[in-house]
Amino acid sequence: MGGEVILLDVWSSPFGVRVRIALAEKGVKYEYREEVLDNKSELLLKSNPVHKKIPVLIHGDKCVSESLIIVQYVDEVWKNSPLLPEDPYERAVARFWADFVDKKVYESATRIWTRKGDAPAEAAKDFIESLKILESSLGDKSFFGGEKLGFVDVALVPFVDWFHAYEVHGGFSVAAECPKIDAWAKRCKEKESVSMASQDPEKILMVVERLKKKFGYV
Ligand SMILES: N[C@@H](CCC(=O)N[C@@H](CS)C(=O)NCC(=O)O)C(=O)O
User: Fold this and answer.
1) Which residues, in sequence order, are CB contacts of 116 under 8 Å at separation 6+?
2) The domain containing residue 210 runs over which residues?
3) Ligand 1 pocket test target in 47, 53, 71, 210 with most atoms within 8 Å of CB
4) Same domain (yes/no): 109, 159
């Protein structure tokens, strides 16, 4: 399947980072277009009319949205360096954990910095608990994908750059609470596809502070 590849994205988006890592793993050349979410481009509105969110992958005349769906599309179109396992059951398991990242990890992490009063502490507890569950799923493997980066790694690793902001607002340390996740994160960062897409945690903290003010979470 041919066609020009364009990624509509925002530099700080963990969802966009997923797609950037997947494209890098496959060696796909693409044009990166930075969106301004306060002033979305016509192309973004046209290519993701339902959610109007980044990331959107444009492949020739096709538009794919929702980061985990985009990563799966990328994995199916560019078959080198597979991210999902071949076995249907193993694929289902990988999809389950990627979905867990969205439903539990991202959800609790977001509550840490968007809520007031006792809620951030409660959210921090849920966040740590979800990371501990992921630690059990990782077991003794180097990556969730086994010896190589896989779908679950791509789903989770973009949030590592956000850990610092979560720690500042939640009052905990991922390294102290979840040493296996900390070691896994360091292994992931050694991969070029991951390090190239990584963002400075201090800059992410600034993004969080800006969003807190903008949406009145302070
Ligand atoms: N579930 C979506 C989430 C994407 C998302 O939340 N994108 C945010 C930026 S990080 C966005 O475009 N927000 C713009 C808006 O909500 O209007 C995915 O996995 O791609």
Assistant:
1) 217
2) 88-214
3) 53
4) yes
